[in-house]
Write a structure and sequence with these properties.
Strand content: 15-25%
Order of helices and strands: EHEEEEEEEHEHHHHHHHHH
Oligomer: single chain
Number of strands: 9
Radius of gyration: 23 Å
Length: 292
């Protein structure tokens, strides 16, 4: 005996331009029947929350699956899979497509060559899928936008839930973020971790989807924007705070990447706040409020 609930959608071309379009969602548990062999023209994230089964790729060989595990189904790749008849499994799936798929793949959130991804837990992905399920009510005028937004959330939560990453992410990325404002070259950062520059590039590309230089630059410029918007520090002082001894070079780099000069950014975003800005991240369950 098995239990299944599923819905399928047909987003318009305009909704596809949002980046990701949800084509379907399903919740299933029990001794489910085998799926396939088949080949799809879109992506599917199959989340096995618990239980056991198997997965077969183009070569037909079966690989054991034990939840929690993510199964990636990608367009044009033959596959089949199923739960063990004796134990079954608890499964959710989301079908999706859209132009943003290519970018998520390049960033490493979708891994076509890694169909089985062990997960540490599925609370985050289950919550994202739950939002799609709730949006799937009949007659919802926001269906396509709500489900498309939830697919973005799902991809992020699946990336965060990977069992090969700690709860705080990749330790190499955390260390780079900690040392981002020091005037170190990529080779010097690599040496600090006992890695070659090539090994560091591979690790950062896998963890963040970009080069070490771009990863560090994003952190530096983000902090520079905060200092420009929230303080009266001269641009030269801001440059030094984020690791650049040459203010002119910093200004050129900022303008090239941000699209506007530091002084112009300050004019647009600056807001002096009595008491200064806080570096603490507000608790979503207890946001700062004006007392009544």
């Amino acid at each position: 005996m098995y239990h299944t609930w599923m819905r399928f959608f047909t987003p318009s071309p305009l909704h596809h331009r949002l980046g990701l379009a949800c084509l379907g969602v399903g919740l299933q548990h029990g001794a489910l029947p085998t799926v396939g062999p088949r080949t799809l023209d879109h992506h599917v994230a199959v989340v096995v929350h618990s239980g056991t089964g198997w997965f077969g790729g183009p070569d037909g060989r079966r690989t054991p699956v034990t939840g929690p595990t993510l199964i990636w189904l990608v367009p044009g790749t033959p596959h089949h899979y199923g739960a063990d008849p004796g134990t079954g499994w608890d499964e959710s799936f989301v079908d999706f497509t859209g132009p943003a798929v290519a970018t998520y793949t390049e960033l490493g959130y979708i891994e076509p060559d890694r169909p089985l991804v062990p997960l540490s837990d599925t609370a985050g992905p289950r919550a994202a899928i739950g939002r799609i399920v709730r949006a799937a009510r009949r007659g919802n005028p926001l269906l396509e936008v709500e489900t498309g937004a939830a697919v973005h959330e799902l991809l992020v939560s699946l990336r965060r839930a990977r069992a090969d990453l700690g709860p705080d992410g990749d330790p190499v990325l955390r260390a780079l973020a900690r040392d981002a404002y020091q005037p170190l070259s990529v080779a010097e950062h690599a040496a600090r971790h006992g890695m070659t520059p090539a090994e560091l590039r591979t690790a950062v590309r896998r963890g963040a989807g970009c080069s070490p230089k771009d990863y560090l630059l994003g952190i530096r410029l983000g902090r520079a924007k905060e200092l420009l918007a929230g303080t009266d520090l001269p641009v030269s002082a801001v440059a030094r705070r984020v690791g650049y001894d040459d203010p002119a070079y910093f200004s050129r780099l900022f303008a090239r990447r941000v699209g506007t000069a530091p002084v112009r950014f300050r004019d647009q975003q600056g807001r002096a706040v009595p008491g200064g800005w806080s570096d603490r991240i507000p608790d979503p369950d207890d946001p700062p409020m004006i007392a009544p």
